[in-house]
Amino acid sequence: MTDVIIDVTTDSFMIDVIEASKTQLVLLDLWAPWCGPCKQLTPILENVTRAGKGAVRLAKMNIDEHPAIAQKLQVQSIPAVFAFKDGRPVDGFMGALPESQVKEFISKHLEGGLGQSPEDEILAAATATFEAGDIQQAAQAFGTLLQQNPDHRAAQAGLAQCFIAAGQIEQAEQILETAPPLERDKEPLASAFAALLLAQQTDNVSEDTAPLEAAVNADPNDHQSRFDLSLAYQAAGKKQEAVDALLEIIQRNRDWNDGSARQQLLTLFQAFGFDDPISIEGRKRLSSILFS
Asked: Which of these is catalytic: 20, 25, 26, 38?
């Protein structure tokens, strides 16, 4: 089989990119040794290309050594990636993208999409198992994937979420503390860190909400009690009620305690997942309050 990852020059461009694109999708990766984002993107392109099992070819071109093609394509910055099909460029992007977006970019140009790699299949199965409530089985699958690839951030986040769901907060902390600081604000690690924060906040919180409910009924402007009530609802697994309590604080006094209710609300959304129906509706209500 023809190599799916190659280095291309100006002289070989016609054969390795233009002609090759008549039989398979070809990605042209324009990079340079001094380009930091290139060093982040190229390994992702290589991994996704290998997972394609021959459906896509990656042609890497060092523009310092071979500038003509980049000039012809009017490239303003690198990394720059172009998708070639049927002898011509059909799409492209600039800058370093996460692996998920690279896969989406490639899949839309492949009939039937980009096949899943063995790692992707394990991850999908582990995620489905976790969502079905089988925490132990999901943890085993995430752990296996993490042993195979210690830098697999989705497996790292998934295993941490399993420990959190099982109430094993210290184990979750140990898993997440090895994550690189620059990646902690990116999904799926960001959701795992938010879930860990909520677990730490509610670890010793009573699930008996009656006293706090009585306090806010007696004084609707007792925002601290309402904030504590939100934590109690969260500890009791009442996600909607936890969100409602924080929105009520923001409705009454959005700047209370330096905006801590809004910050806590965003933590909830992050932990739930921004595609969770409660998060979607809650963000709409938050926007309505803040911009009314």
From this structure: 38
Range of the domain at 266: 210-290
162 flagged as catalytic: no
- Is 35 designated active site? yes
pLDDT tens digits for range 29-65 = 999 999 989 998 998 999 888 877 778 999 999 999 9
Residue 39 and residue 123 in one domain: no
Answer yes or no: do 41 and 25 share one domain. Answer: yes
- Regarding pTM above 0.85, the answer is no
34, 69: one domain: yes
Are residue 126 and residue 82 in the same domain, yes or no? no
Q: Give the contacts of 220 (CB within 8 A, at least 6 positions apart).
A: 252
Q: Of the listed 8, 26, 30, 35, which one is catalytic?
A: 35
